[in-house]
Design brief:
The protein has five helices and no strands. The protein is an all-alpha fold. Helix 1 packs antiparallel against helix 3, helix 3 runs antiparallel to helix 4 and helix 3 packs parallel to helix 5. The longest helix is centred in the middle third of the chain and has 34 residues.
Length: 136
């Protein structure tokens, strides 16, 4: 059970540390809004769901629990790449329409993920739980 929880927490934490590093490299600075922003490299939600699925596989084998994890991970990936990308496009369009309005707050534009961002997250989701299970 310790390895199960550790592998998920470490993967999620590592994904967010990487996200902060990538933001610092890209933007040259960090502010509090960036720490809680959506989108960007890597996808923290995908890393969390993927590591849960990998930990379920390592803990229970090819079981109904693992299959549920796969389904949840697929839903999270679909949301990250498709649904949130559409929201991102809509936010950009709405912000353009309201650009001269000071009384309406701008919408967050960076909410979706690219395939590469999701792939990196899935890589972390496999590697970190394997390391945790076989080293601890």
């Amino acid at each position: 059970m310790k390895q199960f929880v550790l592998s998920i927490v470490i993967t999620w934490f590592f994904a967010y540390i990487l996200k902060i590093i990538f933001i610092l490299i890209k933007e040259g600075q960090l502010n509090k809004e960036m720490l809680v922003m959506n989108g960007g490299m890597p996808s923290g939600h995908t890393a969390l769901a993927g590591s849960l699925t990998m930990a379920l596989l390592l803990e229970t084998g090819f079981s109904p629990y693992f299959v549920m994890g796969v389904v949840i991970t697929i839903l999270v990936i679909y949301d990250a790449v498709n649904v949130r990308s559409i929201i991102e496009q809509q936010s950009k369009a709405i912000n353009k329409l309201i650009s001269d309005r000071k009384d309406i707050p701008k919408l967050e534009e960076n909410v979706g993920h690219t395939g590469l961002e999701v792939a990196v997250s899935l890589g972390l989701s496999v590697i970190i739980p394997l390391l945790v299970y076989y080293m601890i």
